[in-house]
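Students often ask what a 'structure token' actually looks like in practice. Rather than answer in the abstract, let us consider Alpha-monoglucosyldiacylglycerol synthase, a protein of 411 residues. Its sequence is given first.
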Amino acid sequence: MRIALFTDIYLDIPGGIPSSIKAQKSALQKLGHKITIFCPGDQINNTEKDLYIVPTHRLLRPNQAPLAKRPKRILQSIKKEYSVFSDYFDLVHVHYEASCSIAGVKLAKEYKLKLIQTMHGREDIAINTNLSAPTKYLVARLLNIMHSISLGRLSSKTERLPRKDRFLIKNSVCQNMWQLMVRQANLADAVISPSAHFAKNLKQYGVKKPIHVISNGVDDSYLQNLGFSVRSFKPNEHLRIIWNSRLSKEKRILPFLQSVASSKHKDRIDLTIIGDGNQMQEAKNFAKSHLQSSQIKFLGIVPHEQIFNFMQNQHISVINSYGFDTQGMTILEAVACGLPVLYADPAMDEVVPEHGGLRSSNDSVAAMTDAIDQLFAHPTIIEEMSKNVIKAKGSVLQSTQISKLLELYLK
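Now compare that with the structural description of the same chain:
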């Protein structure tokens, strides 16, 4: 098949969406399919093959991410290269909801190509958490209006959009972002959710198109030359914890560091922090004031294929987000390495293998501190969890998940 993947988040951005797209691309190409990724970015620094850089703003880079120009400009550019889009592609798979992704939707509709939409994340939480009032109310409203206008007559074909409630849509920020997400999903022929709990939420808030739960996957090639054994934590050791996520408010890096600093055993905890984000400096400042410099290493952005090297000698991986992640690539990557998971969100029970992780009792700093201290009180838990995680290792590899994706493509 000839597949066009559209996404607004790919180049220069570490995280779950880019890594899942790369893994899908690699697995599909190994099976002989032709993949082209359409995304914003810097053409000069691009070394990846089978990539089409859409018109991108030079100076506007929210959170250091490349920002695509208006869908109209993107469509004009693509049509110069692919005059009749359907002569080059059999299917369009869209991974986001902003300008580049909107262009993908419009091309699929114009040329009557099958359209698959993956709904990756809770954009309502991202806006609500990272922007202050009143800015977040204005931004969410503008994004929703621009999304509707950009889709033009197509947007009128979506079902009734969700209103505020007492569950997930508690304010107008959430309402606007959920309306945007539902509008985007209902234009597809089929929708992919990486988890069952997010699929349930999408359906509850008005997504009428068929929703298929297909997990993201870890690129097999990243692990082929690495060996991972069952982890064990000896009573005289320092506990080695790895953080492999953005350093941002929605990922809750500061509450996690506060939990470590509050632990009775904080002098026996070694942290490796991989990632960057809008709270990097705050995290460093907190660590400098409350933790010893020998305890914590901030590595910044690490090439994705190298992250697994750092996981080889860790005891446990941590993901501290709550209500934000629809799945959590951090969890899948830990499982692929036989690494237990320390986490806070009950929704992640679906993703963490049974008895393969330790969840705090709630989302408070104190609860996470208690969970950390449990590992010191019962060090054999690490080995027990690691054994269970290793049993599930194969399930998180992209080679396992790709057959489900292909089956949906060919339906």
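One point worth highlighting: The chain has two domains: 2-217+398-410, 221-396. Ask yourself how you might have guessed this from the sequence alone, and why that guess would often be unreliable.
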